[in-house]
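Why do we care about 3D structure at all? Because function follows from shape, and shape follows, mostly, from sequence. That is the central idea of this module. The next example makes it concrete: a single protein chain, its amino acid sequence, and then its structure expressed as tokens.
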Amino acid sequence: MSATFYGLYAVILKKRIPDDEEDSFKVSHFLGMVGLFNSVLLIPFFFVLNYTGVEVFEWPNRQALIALTFNAILGTVISDYCWAKSVVLLGPLLPTLGIAMTIPVSMIVGSFYEHKSFTVMYFLGTFLILGSFIGLVTKDYKSS
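And the structure:
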């Protein structure tokens, strides 16, 4: 379901922005509206889940709150802004495949720093992701 909604989100974002308005599209306004929309629709669930005990809310300690704040700024705000801008300018496929590049990168980092070993299927998947990304970028570069 998550992948389906992500795909719909990316395609609809690109389709709703006319090509002649790509440069003037205000990504910050768009993401602000997404945040407002999610806040209005999802905040009631927060109270329901807390009240029923399904998901009890507890304030994080100071150190965790600082880490969460930095993660929110660097890992969410900036990356979502760049992603949305790239979807508007490049279409949904290339940015989504670019995000999938985190899989082989995390695998490489895991093998060097944590001395993890991976099966042949992992390497095959990594090769397919890298090959797809390189092929798509090459095709896109040649067509422009």
